[in-house]
Amino acid sequence: MILVADSSALIALSVCNALQFLDVLFREIKVPRAVFDEVTVEGKKESIELSKYLKDKIESVSMEDYVITDFSIGEGDLEAMALYKRLGADKLLVDDKRARKLAQLNGINIIGSLGILLIAKEKELIGKIKPYVEIIKGSDIYISEELIDSVLELAGER
């Protein structure tokens, strides 16, 4: 399976030291140049870790690939969706709410950082997702309490 990743979810997974699950769960992980540039800005949280992790996962993408947009999302989000379409990827890893809605409008199969943690638990890569969720909650990454509660319920950790 091919996963195209966007910046927000990559940062969340990096913060809780869960990037390695992507390599176990997917055959290929790809990011467009704009996403790589967003997450590797010098001094930005997790930039060093993500730079190392993504160095051989960067893929060129042309914005001529067709994606319906209302231009309310960033260049990285748009490039990730265009790359998903070009590669015929299986999933788009994205947490940003507006980008998720736009991806769904474009017929893109999405998964978020918490979805990756759920699958990691299902595949017995981890025993519990709650410790990972707590690390994300303790960072400056925003994930709604409603979503966290739903995921913990699905994981049987409520």
Ends apart, CA distance between termini: 30 Å
**Which CATH class applies here?**
Alpha Beta
Low-confidence stretches: none
Give the CATH superfamily: 5'-nuclease
Instruction: Assign the CATH architecture.
Output: 3-Layer(aba) Sandwich
| Principal-axis shape | globular
Largest sheet, in brief, is: 5 strands, parallel
Structural class: alpha/beta
Cross-sheet strand order for the largest sheet: 3-2-1-4-5
Distinct helical segment count? 9
- Rg over CA atoms: 15 Å
Helix content: 40-55%
CATH topology: Rossmann fold
Count of separate structural domains = 1
Instruction: Work out the number of β strands.
Output: 5
Strand content: 5-15%
What number is the mean pLDDT? Answer: 90
Written as H for each helix and E for each strand, in order along the chain, the element string is: EHHEHHEHEHEHHH
